[in-house]
Structure formats: structure tokens, C-alpha cells
Design a protein that fits this description.
Largest sheet: 4 strands, mixed
Shape: elongated
Oligomer: single chain
Strand order of the largest sheet: 3-2-1-4
Distance between the termini: 60 Å
Radius of gyration: 25 Å
Number of helices: 13
Helix content: 55-70%
Length: 355
């Protein structure tokens, strides 16, 4: 390959990479610089699901939201929790779920939460056992997770949606440009086989992005079909690519390899991490960060003072600690504080659910 082709390909690769990296850094800097006031409690009215969605955005993983919501409902007086040796935890409904008050309340996420609650205690059903749940509930729970994922993606969709689309478009356009440049410079028609590798990147991205909720029949994230796509398309794109690099000059092979790696990195990893939020969203995010930072940095005597002032403090923040993934770091602090068991639980809650 001549120097002009190498420079052209390098510029194209850099442009495609920077189209993703610059928004990624910009969003991260905005989140880092946002004001994070000290908060003893999460935003008023926000459920654990709200906190998860607003804190993690499109990267939220709501599959583990059941336990935090269970504790949240119990602390608010909607259910009681009891140990059952054979059937797991016994959840008993006390009253219908009602929305909380406060600026953190979101009707859309509450609707998802209520759908889950109503499915647990549908009709005249008052009791639900966690280990005795039927497959029908598990399928329904997957739909709840999908609905929560859809709401999480909306957190960044307003500002990040166009940037993500631009990133994908430029990444694929860059790859096509590099393939054409290398093919013309090497004057070898075998480069056309790179179309298989291009499809091996583009097609899975579209298929894996198919939503899975109550109204769509997509491919579930945990299904074997999704896992099988990975080796299939690695082979589908990898074998033709190996053929191409075996007949091209070394410099051309290196450039094509770098172009494909950068495109795959942008498409499957970096693009999804673009998180640029509005000022209103950043304000909410900052309040959550302030709450999380307080719990992590507070001394035992500060937490003990809050527990003495409000004996239910620990149980009111515990669901959010699970969501923010800080329970292990808080365990030594709360172990040093004398805590009374909550009235809504029968059993050794501290050992089975706390951490």
C-alpha cells in the first residue's frame, strides 16, 4: 500500500473512533462536574426502580430489582415478609400499592412497579412464595425487566439518542471507506469478501437490540439464541477476513484489522456507554450521588445518630443500598450499630436479606 492510502485509512479510522469517544467523554465530564449535595435520604418519592434507572441510565440492570422492591414495599406497609424453610420468603399483602408523594415520583416507573405487585397478588391472592413461583411468573418478570430497561434507555435518549445513531453511522461508514481504500490501493478484488465481516458486526447489533416486552416478541437477553449468535457471526465474519488478510500485503491487513476492531469496539461497547443528560436529569442524578456519597463517607457515629433519631432509617435506605451496590461497603458500619428488627419481618432478616 502507498502512503496516501495508509494516511487516508488512518484518518477514517480516527474519525470513526473519535465520533464515539468525544460524546462519551463529554457526558462523563458533565456527570462528574454536577453538584452533589449531601443527602441523608434518596429523593423523596423515588422508588428503588427510579433510583436505578436515573443513576445508571441505559446501563441499568433491573434483573435484581425484586428484592429491593420487596423491602421497599414492606417498609411502606404494603406487605409483610416471613421466612418459610421450603418455599423461600412468604410475602403477605396488607393493602393495595399506592403512589408515594415527592418530586422523585415517576408515573411510568410506578406503573411498572404496580404491574409487578398486582401480578404477585392478583385478584383475591394475598400470599406469594419466592421459591414456589411458577414459570408463568418468571416469564412475566422478564417482561417487567424489559419494560424497566426501556425506561432506563429513555433517560439518555433525549440527549444521547442522536449521538449514538451518529456514532453507529460513522463507524459503519468509516469501515466501508477503509475497505474501499484498501481495495483500490491493493488492486485486489478479494477485499470484497470483507462484506461478510461487515455483516457479522452490523447484523448482530440490530438483532440484539430487538426489544423484549409485553408487546414485542424479541430474543430474550438470557436466551441461548443470543449466545449462539456470537460464535456463529465470529465464524461468519472471521473466516472470510482470514482469507483476505492471507492474500493482501501486511500493511493492508493491519489497517483492515484495526478498522474492524475499532468498529466492533464502537458498536458493541462504547456506543452504548454514551450518556449525555439534560440539566434536569443531572440535578436528579446529583441528588442520588450525594445520597450515595454520604452513606459511603459517613462515620459510624453519624449513622448511629440518624438511627437514634429515626429507628427505621436503616430499613428505609436499605433497598436503595442494594440498587446502588454499596451494601458490602456499609455492612461494617451498620454491624456496629444496634438495630431493632422491623415489625414487618418474621425471622433473622439481618442474616438472610441485609447483606
Amino acid at each position: 500500500m502507498n502512503l496516501t492510502a495508509i494516511l487516508t485509512s488512518s484518518i477514517l479510522i480516527a474519525a470513526g473512533f473519535l465520533t464515539t469517544v468525544i460524546p462519551l467523554i463529554y457526558g462523563a465530564v458533565k456527570k462528574r462536574k454536577v453538584l452533589k449535595p449531601v443527602e441523608y435520604l434518596p429523593p423523596r418519592g423515588a422508588s428503588p426502580l427510579d433510583i436505578m434507572i436515573q443513576y445508571f441510565g441505559a446501563s441499568a440492570e433491573p434483573r435484581e430489582i425484586f428484592n429491593p422492591l420487596m423491602l421497599y414495599w414492606a417498609e411502606r406497609g404494603f406487605i409483610t415478609v416471613e421466612e418459610d424453610c421450603r418455599r423461600g420468603l412468604k410475602l403477605t399483602k396488607l393493602k393495595d400499592l399506592t403512589p408515594p408523594d415527592g418530586d422523585g415520583y415517576d408515573y411510568k416507573t410506578f406503573k411498572i412497579e404496580k404491574q409487578l405487585f398486582d401480578n404477585l397478588f392478583g385478584g383475591s391472592k394475598k400470599v406469594f412464595y419466592t421459591l414456589a413461583a411458577l414459570s408463568g411468573f418468571k416469564n412475566y418478570y422478564n417482561k417487567i425487566i424489559a419494560a424497566a430497561n426501556a425506561e432506563a434507555k429513555k433517560v439518555t435518549a433525549q440527549k444521547s439518542g442522536r449521538l449514538k445513531f451518529l456514532s453507529l453511522a460513522v463507524s459503519f461508514a468509516t469501515l466501508v471507506g477503509v475497505i474501499l481504500t484498501v481495495g483500490l490501493a491493493a488492486q485486489n478484488n478479494v477485499v470484497i469478501a470483507c462484506i461478510f465481516t461487515f455483516v457479522a458486526i452490523a447484523f448482530p447489533k440490530g438483532v440484539l437490540a430487538i426489544p423484549v416486552d409485553a408487546n414485542h416478541d424479541g430474543i430474550p437477553k438470557g436466551s441461548a439464541a443470543r449466545f449462539l449468535m456470537v460464535p456463529f457471526f465470529l465464524m461468519f465474519g472471521g473466516l472470510p477476513f482470514m482469507l483476505v488478510v492471507s492474500v493482501l500485503p501486511f500493511s493492508a491487513s493491519v489497517i483492515l484489522g484495526v478498522a474492524f476492531v475499532c468498529c466492533a469496539l464502537n458498536v458493541f461497547i462504547l456506543c452504548d456507554r454514551i450518556d449525555v443528560r439534560s440539566n434536569e436529569q443531572l440535578k436528579f442524578y446529583g441528588a442520588i450521588c450525594g445520597f450515595k456519597n454520604f452513606l459511603l463517607l459517613a462515620e459510624v457515629k453519624q449513622l448511629n445518630a440518624l438511627v437514634e433519631e429515626n429507628p427505621r432509617y436503616f430499613y428505609s435506605v436499605l433497598p436503595y443500598c442494594y440498587v446502588l451496590k454499596i451494601t458490602k461497603k456499609l455492612k461494617p458500619k451498620f454491624d456496629a450499630i444496634a438495630l431493632d428488627g422491623p415489625a414487618w419481618y418474621l425471622g433473622e432478616l439481618r442474616e438472610t436479606l441485609m447483606f
